[in-house]
Structure formats: C-alpha cells, structure tokens
Design brief:
- The protein is of the alpha+beta class and 247 residues long.
- It has helices at 15-28, 41-48, 52-64, 94-97, 119-125, 163-170, 173-179, 199-205; strands at residues 68-71, 75-78, 84-88, 105-115, 133-142, 145-154, 185-196, 212-222, 227-236, 240-244.
- α6 packs across α7.
- A six-stranded antiparallel beta sheet has the order 4-5-6-9-8-7. A two-stranded antiparallel sheet has the order 1-2. A two-stranded parallel sheet has the order 3-10.
- It has two domains: 9-78, Arc Repressor Mutant, subunit A (Orthogonal Bundle), CATH 1.10.10; 84-244, 3-Layer(aba) Sandwich (Chorismate lyase).
- The chain has eight helices and ten strands.
- The protein is elongated, with a radius of gyration of 21 Å.
- A hairpin with a 2-residue loop joins β5 and β6 (145-154).
- This is Phosphonate metabolism transcriptional regulator PhnF.
Length: 247
C-alpha cells in the first residue's frame, strides 16, 4: 500500500501486539468502518513488513476483543464495539457521566484495607507519612461490561470508618461519600496516561492480552476544599473515550 510505513522492529514490544494496536487505532479512527472488510493477511503483512503468522496472531487478539469477526471463505470484518463517552471535569461522577448511554451503571468492591499509603498519596492528601488511610480496589460496570478498574485511597481512615461497607452496599462512590458527610466534591486536575494492561487487570476486566488502558490519576476535594481522596482509575481504551471538559 502506497505511503505505508513498516513497524520499527527495534522496540521491546512484541510485533504482533504492535500490529494489533495499529489495526485497532485504524478501526477507532474510522479508517476501517464498522462492517467493512479488512485487508487480507498478505496485504497486512506487506503493510507492516512482518510475516503472516505475526498478522494472524494480531488478528486473533482483535477477534478475542470482539473488534473483528472472521467469516469462513470471505475474510475478516470490523465489528467495532460501541465506545462510551466519559466526561472528565471538575465534578466528574461515574453514573452521571454515563447517563443516557447505559441503563445499568454500578461499582463493585473487590477488596479494602487500612494502610499507610505511598508517599505521593500522603503528600497529595496533605497527610503525614504515618497517617493511615482506607484503600479500596474496585471495578465499575456499564450494562454488565467492565469499564474501569480503580485503586482509591481515602483518608484519614478515621474520617471514613464505614465507606467500604457503604460502597459495597450502594455500588456508588458518590452515594457512599454522601453517607460519610461529603455533600459535594471536586477535582483540581486529572492526569491521563496510557499503558498495556497487566495480566491481573486483563483478567478482571475481561480484556484480551495486549489490551491498552487509559490511566487517570486525580485528587478529590470536599465541600470545604480539603483533599480527602486520591484515585488511580484504569479505563479500557477500546470501550470508553475520555472527553475533557473546559469547565
């Protein structure tokens, strides 16, 4: 194909994974439309300057993710999953942000414990290094499909003695915080990066090996502008797009 560039093979990422990433980007970017036929294995091998086995493995991953379907005797076709739009702003709320896009939105607590947090978390929350906080590991779902995997530190722990139990019961962080007396909360900024999912994250979120995560890190402040919560949320990049608000 004219104008195509082969992959740089000097990197540390497996070639099949990088081929899968490039095809996924083409699908998400509209180069290959939903229902459209993909180039043949031979054409893709030529485009990326790799062998057909590498292309075949990359396509198998995309089939596992549900992005591509194979039809015997006809080839492979795009079956792009519907991606939800998740707004990022000063008052970001999971349920409210997905309103109108999903009928069932809820969170699930995986585990919780009281601990002395990493130093960056203590500093961000304005706590002494020895101050203990509540750490929660959770998943969030939209219509039964995992969208996020979050690690949340809330502190000091003495201020939120029932937060984990309330979140487990209510399935909503906003509702659980309201019970704890947090009537409103805002975030100053959200830092967003991207990386490959770890094996445990892939398993918990039902992702194929090599799936990409968008990682958002932020600090929440209560109605009195006191920092109380530090969160690192991993979003499944092929299931959700982040929309940054200018508010």
């Amino acid at each position: 194909m004219t104008g195509e560039k082969s992959l740089d093979k000097s990197g540390g990422v497996a070639l099949w994974r990088r081929v899968a990433d490039d095809i996924r980007l083409d699908i998400n970017g509209g180069r290959f439309i939903d229902g459209g036929k993909l180039p043949t294995e031979g054409e893709l091998a030529t485009r990326f300057d790799v062998n057909r086995h590498t292309v075949r493995r990359a396509l198998a991953v995309l089939e596992e993710e549900g992005i591509v379907r194979a039809e015997q005797g006809r080839g492979r076709f795009v079956r792009a999953a519907r991606r939800l739009s998740y707004p990022i702003g000063r008052r970001t709320r999971f349920s409210a942000g997905l309103a109108g896009q999903a009928s069932d939105v809820h969170g699930e607590l995986l585990e919780s414990r009281i601990e002395t947090p990493p130093l960056p978390v203590s500093k961000a929350l304005g706590l002494t290094p020895a101050t203990r906080v509540l750490r929660m590991e959770s998943l969030s779902f939209a219509d039964g499909r995992p969208l996020t995997r979050a690690t949340t530190w809330t502190g000091p722990s003495t201020r939120f003695p029932a937060l984990a139990d309330d979140f487990r019961e209510l399935g909503s962080m906003t509702a659980a915080l309201r019970r704890a007396g947090i009537t409103d909360y805002t975030r100053q900024e959200t830092r967003i990066s991207a990386r490959y999912a770890e094996s445990s994250e892939s398993h918990q979120m039902g992702l194929a090996p090599g799936a990409v995560l968008l990682v958002g890190t932020y600090v929440n402040r209560d109605q009195d502008s006191v920092a109380f919560q530090y969160t690192m949320t991993r979003f499944a990049a092929d299931r959700v797009e982040l929309v940054v608000s200018a508010e």
